[in-house]
Amino acid sequence: MSDAQSPTLLIISSYFKGEAFIRQAKKEGCRVLFLTEEKLANEKWPRESIDEFFLMPDLTKIQDMINAISYLYRGQWIDQIIALDEYDVENVATLREHLRLPGMGQTQTKFFRDKLAMRMKAEAGGIRVPAFTPVLNYDRLREYMGRVPAPWVLKPRTQASSMGIRKIHDSEELWRTLDTLGDEQSTFVLEHFIPGEVYHVDSLTWDGKVVYASAQRYGEPPFQVYHGGGIFTTRILPQDSDDAVALKAFNIEVIKALGMDYGVTHAEFIKGKDDGQFYFLEIAARVGGAHISDLLEHATGVNPWSEWAKLEIAHIRGQQYQPPQPRPEYGGLLVSLAKQDHPDTSAYTDPEIVWRIDKLNHVGFIVVSESADRVDELLDSYLPRVANDFLAVAPPKEKATH
């Protein structure tokens, strides 16, 4: 076993992300082993913080992963395996169980990955969720459609973001869609479509208690942006607002019901337009994507990636984790596909702009202010300008590609 003060982490990612986690792990005194796919070898990984760098052709092949990591384990002790991306979470849970390492195993991981498992567990814990049914037994499906009025949403159980989600308007459309899915239909869950605004809470949990949480509201719902084309926005809610207080309390209930002991989460909720009630939509045991971590860092001084690394390492060492003290500022994020390879955003000169995205065919800003109203004003003014100056639309993907 490695020295508790210098634990060895194996960090796995099949997407380019989480550089701050890697840097923080090294800063905390860890030995850092890193594994990614061959096609990502030349990305800007923080190699100065990586002790050994490994490549595999395909991280989705779990038996190959078990064989490779078990071989690596012969020569050096690994204290923990971390998945940076949602698509690696289940495989890493399998690896932990195979090597008998701490952290969430396969069953617990399902509650933060499989939309059917998380809904069933949440509902059993008294959490308000949209009416749903597994896509398994046709008699149950018919009963559900007779009880819950259309429209419905057909969701892949393990895809991330809004990939593969379909809005279904009547029973005939559902049966036609299931015919096209064939043997894959059991990998979906059907739920009631609730119109309303979508929110997210990004949080850190330690010893079963949420020790940091930030509540945000999306502009257009992610489903609409992803499938209809548009501009992604989100903004931090005023801390003492009714919505922020209710969401943070609801988030605590969800995490307790799903049984998380320690870790990082990104949870999504919808506020029903008709009844004003919040409903739990989904939760992932990862840092929020789409540059939400950048928003939180610039607006509040809290980098979820770095804090997650501190939290994991404190657990390995048997130490107490000290949660961050966020700054009381507000921020907003805007990101869009752009028709230009390298969009020129020099005409956007507001002093509240603290970050601009640096990515091919993308445009994006983060604005920070002491006033939540000022953040709203800026984002609302940018939407038509960005649409006119840059907006491009790409067809939605049904599945993630590696």
* Rg, alpha carbons: 21 Å
**Shape annotation:** globular
Average residue-wise pLDDT: 94
CATH homologous superfamily label of the largest domain:
ATP-grasp fold, B domain
Describe the overall structure.
The protein has 12 helices and 16 strands. It has 402 residues and is α+β, with helices and mostly antiparallel strands. The protein has 3 domains: 8-105, Rossmann fold; 131-192, 2-Layer Sandwich (Dna Ligase, domain 1), CATH 3.30.1490; 196-389, D-amino Acid Aminotransferase, Chain A, domain 1. The strands form 3 sheets. An 8-stranded antiparallel beta sheet has the order 13-12-9-10-11-14-16-15, with helices on both faces. Strands 3-2-1-4 form a 4-stranded parallel beta sheet. A hairpin with a 2-residue loop joins strand 9 and strand 10. The protein is globular. The mean pLDDT is 94.
Q: In brief, what are we looking at here?
A:
With 402 residues, the chain is α+β, with helices and mostly antiparallel strands. Helices cover 34% and strands 25% of the residues.
List keywords for this structure.
Rossmann fold; alpha+beta; Dna Ligase, domain 1; 402 residues; globular; 3 domains; D-amino Acid Aminotransferase, Chain A, domain 1; 16 strands; eight-stranded antiparallel sheet; 25% strand; single chain; four-stranded parallel sheet
